[in-house]
Amino acid sequence: MNDRRLDSFTSLLVALVQLVLLLLGMIGISVHLFRQNGWISQIVGHVLETWSFTAIAAIPLLAAAYLILTNWYTKNFTKDAQEKVTNLMLFAMMGVGAFFLFRLISSGSFTG
Predict the structure, then answer these.
(1) Are 82 and 76 in contact (CB under 8 A)?
(2) DSSP letter at 30?
(3) CB-count exposure of residue 29 (10 Å: 0-12, 13-18, 19+)
(4) Please, what sign has the CA dihedral across residues 76, 79, 82, 84?
(5) pLDDT of the residue at 39
(6) Between the CA of residue 92 and those of 12, 25, 68, 106, what are the distances in Å?
(7) Distance of alpha carbon 45 from its chain centroid, rounded?
(8) Contact 96, 28 (CB under 8 A)
(9) CA 75 → CA 9, 20, 82, distances in Å?
């Protein structure tokens, strides 16, 4: 009985650590996306600065590439392979969260 409680407690702690790392990863990316002179404002600034056909044509081409890759992914991967890719993305975001946790501890902010 005690062994089962310990297993459920450790699984709870692992799940909480994973959740915290995921949230820190999402918060860190959001801070870099939406801050002043962040990634979004830099991209929009470059697009507006160049205002060429290439920059304007990139938006629908990226949307088309996303649709094609999504269609290819759902048709060519089995359920097990999709779960592996999903787990890989989960662990990648947890790695990003660990990076931002380190940055938060070492410098006191997400931006360094």
Answers:
(1) no
(2) H
(3) middle
(4) negative
(5) 82
(6) 21, 9, 23, 21
(7) 23
(8) yes
(9) 39, 33, 10
Looking at the chain, the whole-number percentage of residues with pLDDT higher than 70 is 90
Looking up tokens 């629908």, which residue turns up? 60
Q: To 10 degrees, the CA torsion angle through 20, 21, 22, 23?
A: 50
Instruction: Flag whether the pTM goes above 0.70.
Output: no
Distance, CA of 100 to CA of 87 (rounded, Å): 20
How many CA atoms lie less than 13 Å away from 21 in the CB half-sphere? Answer: 18
**Residue 48 identity (one-letter amino acid):** L
User: So what's the pLDDT on residue 53?
Assistant: 67
Q: Rounded mean pLDDT of 74-78?
A: 76
Q: What is the maximum alpha-carbon separation in the chain?
A: 68
- Residue 36 confidence (pLDDT): 85
